[in-house]
Amino acid sequence: MTPLLQLHHLSKSYKKQVAIDDISLALPAGKIIGLLGSNGSGKTTLIKLINGLLQPDKGDVVINGYRPSIETKKIISYLPDTTYLREGMKIKDMLDLFDDFYEDFSREKAENLLKDLHLDDNEMLKNLSKGNKEKVQLVLVMARKAKLYILDEPIGGVDPAARDYILKTIINNYSEDASVIISTHLISDIEPILDEVIFLKEGKIILQGNADDIREEYGKSIDSVFREKYNG
Amino acid sequence: MFSKLLKYELKFVGKWYFALNTGLLLIAALLGFVIKSLDTNPQSMNEIIPFFLFLILGALIASSWLATITIIVKRFYSHIFGREGYLTLTLPVSIHQIIISKLLVSVLWSIFNTLVILISIGLLFLPSVGIKETLIFLPSINDVLPFNNLLLLIFYTFMSNISGNLLIYFALSIGQLFSDHRILMSFVAYFSIIIALILFTTPLLEKFMPYDDLFSTPFFIYYILAFVIESSIFYFGTAYIIKNKLNLQ
Amino acid sequence: MSWKFDEKSPIYAQIAQHIKMQIISQEIKSGEQLPTVRELAEIAGVNPNTMQRAFSELEREGMVYAQRTSGRFVTDDKELIVQKRNELAELELKNFVDNMTKIGFSIKEILSVLNTYITEEKLG
To answer: Which residues span the membrane (chain B) (predicted)?
Structure first.
């Protein structure tokens, strides 16, 4: 079965800094994968490369058989680590926009999620708190039936109750023909929902495998293994 | 997809923009009547009032023009190079579709604004001259003004507009290539290119049509060609920078 | 609220253990139908594949069996449950005795202290 995401000897540098150093990776569908690493490890660069927001210096990114292009943007649902919404719009205008551009967007699902999170879709985006803006962004991303979800710090700025809800939503959204890549530094919260983990350091993959197997091998939580690898 | 992009581009110009242009037309009309009354009754009005109205009109014209440019720049910049770039550049559309949809709407606003300004100036004289007389006069404009080919003129204006907008996009994109002072570098790029264009095209123009008049057919054709070439350079330059050299923050 | 897991062992093993405890204590009765992998994964706050692995573990031990179309059910095998209960009890006892010995109690002292504790704390 063709992997959902393939990276072939991918490299990217900024001026003199090497951000991604010859990375190769193959990820199947049906998995929730944690992309773990400190700032500067190359996580953000990798995510931008997969989304086609950056061009690689060397190597290939292949998603479902396509290079980053309109075809891949149709099946990738991306949550960036920043607020990117059109400030002048209302929440329901954003729902309209996503409905217009993405065939796999379910307006009904979005409205249900918004209701659960106590967000009124008549609100102006610029009047929302940062936490609520992030919730809206997450709703938009999760209301799509994409093949690859890329979530960059999905639970960073929200309160613990919302955090639980978000994790449950990610689990609930699980499907065998889609995968979720979660990039975060809040490892202990995210650990239980991960299938696999990828540790990134200085642009290279230093550890990769099934989360439970790694816990078994090291006798520690992924969080502890991570600290060990990064501080040792 | 493209029509959807257009739809969202058109939606957000803001009510104040139309209010500004409407205000412009109203003040111009008002001034037109003031001028007319001055004509028939020179002593009836204080000279200061029409003077102020002219000032206001001038200010409104400048404002509406500035507002148009600001809208064009701001929408392109914030949607592509700002945080909203994360949304725009991950939508399932090509960069060409994005640029062209924005270009189309920018040209629309520019032309709209130009028309409003022209009509405003016209409104200054309309009450004095009278509607009937103006309508009779209209067809003979072609003889009075030195444009013997209206079609070429329209095409010239159109291409000039497109080239002008694309230059703005290109300058903004060039600014993005720098890590600091991006806005400053955009200005530098903008004016450098304009100066380069003038330096380059004017001597060639003299060579091309040393004896012909301004606004003659060869003049138009020369400039239309120049605009087409410039537009292509600016367009593909912009697309290349966005695709290959952009790094969103 | 999601279940809490400790650092030391794989999550699927901890889930299997947790459900096993619930079966032994009859919190979940014999013959009862378990929620689906997805439902339980959501309740527990874990990856469905992990929950699947936990279920496989329970099936392997015989605590749970799968019926093709209807889902997963707790075993009817009362003997098995009693046996597992005894296994767990033995493990607890072993740990208890090992720890008490480590603290410094002799076997006689352990019995005496245990007796006192139960009489006073639990029956008194």
So the answer is: 12-36, 48-73, 103-130, 150-171, 183-200, 220-242
Predicted model pTM: 0.86
Looking at this protein, which amino acid is placed at residue B11? K
Per the CB < 8 A criterion, the answer to whether B83 and A83 are in contact is yes
Chain B residues touching A53 at Cβ < 8 A: 86, 89-90, 246-248
- At CA B64, angle to CA B63 and CA B68, rounded to 5? 115
Provide CB contacts within 8 A for A86, sequence distance 6+.
Answer: A93, A94, A97, A125, B12, B84, B87
Considering the domain architecture, whether residues B122 and B164 belong to the same structural domain is answered as: no
Q: Are strands A32-36 and A196-201 parallel, antiparallel or unpaired?
A: parallel
- Digit-coded pLDDT (tens) for B88-129: 999 999 999 999 999 998 898 888 888 888 888 888 777 777
- How distant is the alpha carbon of residue A159 from its chain centre? 19
Contact A195 C41 (CB under 8 A): no
What ipTM describes this predicted complex?
Answer: 0.90
Average pLDDT in the A169-173 region?
A: 90
Q: How many CB atoms lie within 10 A of CB A102?
A: 20
Nearest C-alpha of chain B: how many angstroms from A208? 28
Give the domain range for residue A143.
Answer: 5-231
Exposure of C123 by Cβ count < 10 A (0-12 exposed, 13-18 middle, 19+ buried)? exposed
Q: Which residue of A has its CA nearest to C43?
A: A168
Q: What is the pLDDT, as a whole number, of residue A189?
A: 86
Cα A28 from Cα A196, distance rounded (Å): 11
Chains in contact with A, where contact means 3 or more Cβ–Cβ distances below 8 Å, are B, C
Residue B80 and residue B86 in contact, taking contact as beta carbons nearer than 8 Å: no
Backbone angles phi, psi at A10, to 5 degrees: -85, 130
Whether residue A20 contacts residue A48, with contact meaning beta carbons closer than 8 Å, is answered with no
**A108: CATH:** 3.40.50.300
Does A84 contact B84 at a Cβ distance shorter than 8 Å?
A: yes
How far is it between the farthest Cα atoms of chain C?
A: 55
State which residues form the domain around B33.
1-139
Strands A148-152 and A76-79: parallel
Q: What is the CA radius of gyration of chain C?
A: 18
Give the Cβ contact number of residue B70 at 10 Å.
12
Which tokens is B163 given? Answer: 């080239």
Residue whose entry in the numeric block shows the structure tokens 């209807």: C70
Do B90 and B201 lie in a common domain?
Answer: no
